[in-house]
Amino acid sequence: MKRFLALILAVTMAATIFGGCSSAPAKDEGKLNIVTTIFPEYDWVSNITSGAEDVNITLLLENGADLHSYQPTAEDIVKISSCDVFIYVGGESDKWVDDALKGATNKEMTVINLLDILGTKAKEEETVEGMQAEHEEKDGKEEAEEEVELDEHVWLSLKNASMVCGKISDKLSEKDAKNKELYSKNTENYLKKLNELDARYKAVRDSAKYDTLIFADRFPFRYLIDDYNLKYYAAFSGCSAESEASFETVAFLAKKLDELKLPALMKIDGSDGKIANTVLQTSNQKNAQILELNSMQSVNKKDIEDGKTYLSIMESNLAVFTQAVKG
User: Which residues contact residue 203 at a Cβ distance below 8 angstroms, ignoring those fewer than 6 apart?
Assistant: First the structure.
């Protein structure tokens, strides 16, 4: 889905800011200034740089805004412009970044794009059986959008997280050689934790009774599902802006729930659960539970202050995952 409004806003703000705004706040001089767009990036960098006093990390989406609808403020653009390292996902939702970087005042900035790191391991969004296609207005008519986009939810794979953290660590070490040994040690310890949790997911999958999950919601978990060789059905794709499921979609998901006799129906964080409840009431599996997997798309500053981390959320997701596939 094209984000024309976000792109236009970014261009307008960039022109205003870089055309002579002298009141823009300066970066934290004497420190390695790192700007991240989303929570997983922020938490990964926090672990990699733990113990380094001369590092300043900024999370742009700290108010819990969804990556897909985020529009940068003028202050955000300024933070990006002068930072030393900028980390972002790099999908369709981040099209605004191109214009933000054109006006960057720090010409030696290191830019890290998660989808670029994954390369051929990045997956295209897919439409599976029963999934409601997204629509947009074209020439006054509503048409199904056909353009293929990369699935942006790369952080929901522990394997991806390990790959990305290794590359981020290398880039930070190049940028900040004096802390290279610290970054290397922190990364080694963190990768061990990621790999151990990945092994626990695999162990649950190996002993699972069910091999399919049904999401009566958006579906941002394709990377996780593929990591553990599971099947899925969903109401919408992960990046969909749709919020109302058609009768056909609800009926299809209810029928699949009955056919597979699954013990659970899935929704994601931030969902009101209306579609899941409707599917459940339409099905014959009245005793199925509605379980929630956290996609980390709405983590905010308070959540971080309360101690939520990437690993703690993936731990919680493991408990839900276990319940869904083992019954």
Answer: none
Write the pLDDT tens digit of every residue in 295-310. 999 899 999 999 999 9
Under 8 Å between Cβ of 124 and 149: yes
Tokens (6 digits) for 301: 């500053």
Whether the CB-CB separation of 197 and 314 falls below 8 Å is answered with yes
d(CA 273, CA 1): 24
Asked if residues 182 and 52 have their Cβ atoms less than 8 Å apart, the reply is yes
Give phi and psi for 181, each to the nearest 5.
Answer: -65, -40
DSSP state of 31: S
Check pLDDT > 90 for residue 5.
no
Q: Which residues contact 52 (CB under 8 A, 6 or more apart)?
A: 32, 176, 179, 182, 183
23 has pLDDT over 80 = no
CA atoms of 223 and 200, how far apart (whole Å): 16
Q: In angstroms, rounded to a whole number, what is the distance separating the alpha carbons of residues 145 and 133? A: 7
Structure tokens at 322: 């276990």
